[in-house]
């Protein structure tokens, strides 16, 4: 008996959608049945190129408008990588049409907008989730086990992370991430969202008590009414004294590291967002010991490596495939996972608070756990 599959529609032909097309193809419980773009020629080209590399059983239909996908009766769920500035309208409309939704991050312009989007999904009985792939990596399970055993790291005191890339020539004049209309959060929304999510994950979704943010650099893209952050740093302070600092940037080399420091040791990951190419994902613990023997001052690392058999990308075991497989399984189960939209909302709350702080000369912004 053939497995029942969730039938996906993709809204737009954004470059990231290529990766997720392949993830849907590899998931086993999903298939793409339609792609919608305001440029039908581009839509057909996108389908042809993706179908040649990761073919669906039946070639997906090409729609020349988003409305056609909205009314398609053979679409169960949609992936929405549209720009943040126009995303709310389409999330709400697809929710009202009864389509389950995976949307790109940052999810919304404001916390109020995201609350409205999530409420629309809940009211119409559809699942909502943001597209943070590392949340679906098995490495996260291994990391949690190491942190919970209290032997190697101990009590968490500090979480540090950075996510950056050096923008290519022409990026700030052409790319939507330099537009205050389409992506007003700039590098904070595009990259900082991941750093914030990691901190909240390690803190078991506890919201910080206070945050501060600082815009280190900003730019105004072509036809952008206002500048957007291109280099940003943030600081989160939690109720139990744990602090978390992050840096995100379009102006520095590829970097995506995280360190979790405890009172016994630390965990280091050099690729917490996009795993380095290979067939396993890893992290390392260090429990440094300092010994003085006469004139010898020795700092001993005491390293231990942990590896999880999971391909970095484009594979049935990869984190992006796990995301779509888990989402489709939830849809097929016929129940809603309330934790997914709630976590997206908490991330949005912290991100917007960091930006509000930065625009208020880095004054601290208080956050309530009932925010």
Provide a brief overview of the structure.
This protein is an alpha/beta fold and about 375 residues long. Helix content is about 35%, strand content about 30%. It is built from ten helices and 17 strands.
Architecture overview:
Helix content is 33%, strand content 28%. By secondary structure, the protein is of the alpha/beta class. The strands form three sheets. The protein has a nine-stranded mixed β-sheet with strand order 16-13-12-11-7-10-9-8-17. It is globular, with a radius of gyration of 21 Å. It has two domains: 129 residues, Rossmann fold (3-Layer(aba) Sandwich), CATH 3.40.50.720; 203 residues, 2-Layer Sandwich (Dihydrodipicolinate Reductase, domain 2). It contains ten helices and 17 strands. The relative contact order is 0.15. Helix 4 packs parallel to helix 5 and helix 5 runs antiparallel to helix 10.
The biggest beta sheet reads: 9 strands, mixed
Q: Class of the largest domain, according to the CATH hierarchy?
A: Alpha Beta
SS-based class: alpha/beta
Specify the helix fraction band: 25-40%
Number of strands: 17
The appropriate CATH architecture of the largest domain is: 2-Layer Sandwich
The arrangement of helices and strands along the chain is EHEHEHEHEHEHEHHEEEEEEEEEHHE
Helical run tally: 10
């Amino acid at each position: 008996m053939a497995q029942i599959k969730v039938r996906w529609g993709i809204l737009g032909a954004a470059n990231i959608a290529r990766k997720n097309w392949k993830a849907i193809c590899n998931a086993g419980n999903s298939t793409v049945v339609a792609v919608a773009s305001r440029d039908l020629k581009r839509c057909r080209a996108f389908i042809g190129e993706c179908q040649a590399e990761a073919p669906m059983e039946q070639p997906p239909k090409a729609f020349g408008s988003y409305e056609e996908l909205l009314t398609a009766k053979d679409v169960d769920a949609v992936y929405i990588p549209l720009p943040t500035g126009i995303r709310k309208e389409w999330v709400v409309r697809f929710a009202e049409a009864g389509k389950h939704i995976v949307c790109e991050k940052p999810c919304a312009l404001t916390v109020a907008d995201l609350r409205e989007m999530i409420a629309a999904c809940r009211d119409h009985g559809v699942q909502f989730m943001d597209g943070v792939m590392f949340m679906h990596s098995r490495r996260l399970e291994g990391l949690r086990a190491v942190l919970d055993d209290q032997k190697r790291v101990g009590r968490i005191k500090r979480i540090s992370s950075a996510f950056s890339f050096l923008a290519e020539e022409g990026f700030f004049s052409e790319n939507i991430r330099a537009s205050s209309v389409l992506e007003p959060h700039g590098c904070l929304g595009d990259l900082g969202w991941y750093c914030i999510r990691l901190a909240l994950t390690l803190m078991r979704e506890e919201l910080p008590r206070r945050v501060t943010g600082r815009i280190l650099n900003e730019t105004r893209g072509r036809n952008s009414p206002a500048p957007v952050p291109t280099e940003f740093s943030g600081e989160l302070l939690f109720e139990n004294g744990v602090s978390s600092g992050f840096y995100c940037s379009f102006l520095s080399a590829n970097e995506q590291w995280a360190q979790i420091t405890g009172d016994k040791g630390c965990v280091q990951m050099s690729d917490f967002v996009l795993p380095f190419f290979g067939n396993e994902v890893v992290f390392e613990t260090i429990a440094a010991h300092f010994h003085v023997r006469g004139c010898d001052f020795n700092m001993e690392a005491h390293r231990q490596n942990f590896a999880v058999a999971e391909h970095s990308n484009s594979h049935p075991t990869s984190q992006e495939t796990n995301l779509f497989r888990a989402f489709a399984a939830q849809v097929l189960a016929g129940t809603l996972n309330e934790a997914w939209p709630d976590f997206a909302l908490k991330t949005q709350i912290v991100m917007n608070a960091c930006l509000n702080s930065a625009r208020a000369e880095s004054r601290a912004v208080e956050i309530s756990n009932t925010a």
